[in-house]
Amino acid sequence: MTTISTPDLTDAHPDAAAIELQFHNFGSIRQFGGPAVTIKCHEDNSLVKQCVGEPGQGRVIVVDGGGSLRRALLGDMLAQEAAANGWAGLVINGAVRDVDEIAATAIGVQALGRCALKTQKLGVGQRDVVIAFGGVTIAPGDFVYADNNGVIVSKRALL
Fold first, then answer.
1. What pTM value is reported for the model?
2. I want to staple 16 with a disulfide (CB 3.0 to 4.6 A). Which of 27, 47, 119, 154 is the partner?
3. pLDDT tens for residues 58-112?
4. The domain spanning residue 138 has which CATH number?
5. 6 in a domain, yes or no?
């Protein structure tokens, strides 16, 4: 596995943008990166559930949950499915749950926080759209890199 250091990547590539949010690392994979698949949803993880069931091919699911910490957009079962299907990781502008189980799962997960409550599955949200949070705009196919220092985004591959 290639070592990812977001400080080194931003030093070498000043055009990379750092998301200005304080993410926490929840998965057992502490550094990850790949092309972005974007989801915009609010307290409904229907699209996240659908997405993790597809072949990940080393991509990163970036979920704009509006920063809500009232409902968890990812739990242990979806994290395990994402890992099994080859996703590199998830970056979630929102909450996760089942954090002890996610910590033992071979997937990268960066999120704002944790919440014990699951979402309702109403099928509400958008996929493969341009999203923006933390001062950064992320389009489908942009490259996302994450480690314990933060999450960065680039229009091109940096590794």
1. 0.98
2. 154
3. 999 999 999 999 999 999 999 999 999 999 999 999 999 999 999 999 999 999 9
4. 3.50.30.40
5. no
Write down the residue that tokens 């942009």 correspond to: 142
Q: Which residue has the tokens 């920063």?
A: 67
pLDDT confidence of residue 1: 60
**CA nearest to 64, candidates 78, 86, 45, 83:** 45
DSSP β-bridge partners for residue 18: 152
> Could you write out the DSSP letters of every residue in 79-115?
HHHHHHTT--EEEEEEEE--HHHHHTSSSEEEEEEE-
Task: Give the range of the structural domain holding residue 132, as residue numbers without chain letter.
Answer: 23-145
Q: Contact at 8 Å (CB) between 110 and 26?
A: yes
Extract the tokens encoding 145.
Answer: 């890199």
Average pLDDT of the chain is 97
Residue 14 lies in a domain: no
